Amino acid sequence: xxxxxxxxxxxxxxxxxxxxxxxxxxxxxxxxxxxxxxxxxxxxxxxxxxxxxxxxxxxxxxxxxxxxxxxxxxxxxxxxxxxxxxxxxxxxxxxxxxxxxxxxxxxxxxxxxxxxxxxxxxxxxxxxxxxxxxxxxxxxxxxxxxxxxxxxxxxxxxxxxxxxxxxxxxxxxxxxxxxxxxxxxxxxxxxxxxxxxxxxxxxxxxxxxxxxxxxxxxxxxxxxxxxxxxxxxxxxxxxxxxxxxxxxxxxxxxxxxxxxxxxxxxxxxxxxxxxxxxxxxxxxxxxxxxxxxxxxxxxxxxxxxxxxxxxxxxxxxxxxxx
Length: 322
Ligand code: A3P
Prior knowledge:
By secondary structure, the chain is α/β, with parallel strands linked by helices. The chain has helices spanning 2-7, 12-26, 34-44, 76-83, 107-113, 136-143, 156-170, 177-180, 195-198, 202-210, 223-228, 230-240, 288-309; strands spanning 60-61, 66-70, 89-91, 116-117, 122-126, 148-153, 182-184, 189-190, 218-222, 252-255, 260-263. The strands form four sheets. Strands 3-5-2-6-9 form a five-stranded parallel beta sheet. 39% of the residues are buried. Adenosine-3'-5'-diphosphate binds at residues 31, 72-78, 128, 162, 165, 226-227, 260-261, 275, 279-281. 3'-phosphoadenylyl sulfate binds at residues 73-77, 154, 162, 279-283.
């Protein structure tokens, strides 16, 4: 009886659940934590699936035509959950980490991870570490040179603190942010090799991508705007993907308890969908001098980034954290 059960082919939905379970196990250091996925499942009232809760699994699996490549703690989960509300988008919920950790598994493995799509539907995934992976642009270009890339960027100082807060939640014994941020605090020497700081040198990483992709193929979403005006940022995302503007103000409401926008309850069923508690954590208090020092450190890189992208993200106007 056990063997018979093993030989029974999985239904499409079950297959995705099985793959997701596998991916979850593999995504050790991913920003998609089990906690977050569990929260989302609970919020959705549904099992882990490839796309919007009401979309059945029809069609065939395709390699993605669009990727959310970064940045970690930029608001990548919020963006993915909002865009997958669109009926013409099918996205994998977990982070496949194909172009960094799983590349040797091959393109067929990658395609198999994707949800099924119908003609005209866009297949997507998000893995924020791609943005800072040296080999990623070359590998992605080799797969599809016309792919669309999306990067959610956020004030690098706030991003660093958010990143640190995430690590702290898993390893409470780590040194303070103030200690980790400096190579030599007396000399004011920032430790740019600390990943929480290095990831925020956006200009440096972007240079690598521009060796392979024209700027027109990359959309930069403001992580700050995604919170204060999610519909506005989603309009840009849908235009960029060549989709009708289906996800609009109607889909969001500001949840006071969460302190963030959440997705409204779908018409048919289910609860409203806020992200899990690993998104929107309370940051620890950081010494304002350290914040100012970091802002000074990032300023030239931010300017370079604004110049490269032709967008002013206004991070210089903020008074530090949040
Ligand atoms: P904090 O937890 O530091 O507030 P990512 O999904 O890339 O890891 O990004 C996490 C960040 O997304 C959160 O960082 C939060 O600020 C931001 N965010 C943007 N929109 C959000 C939303 N609707 N709900 C929760 N967090 C959101």
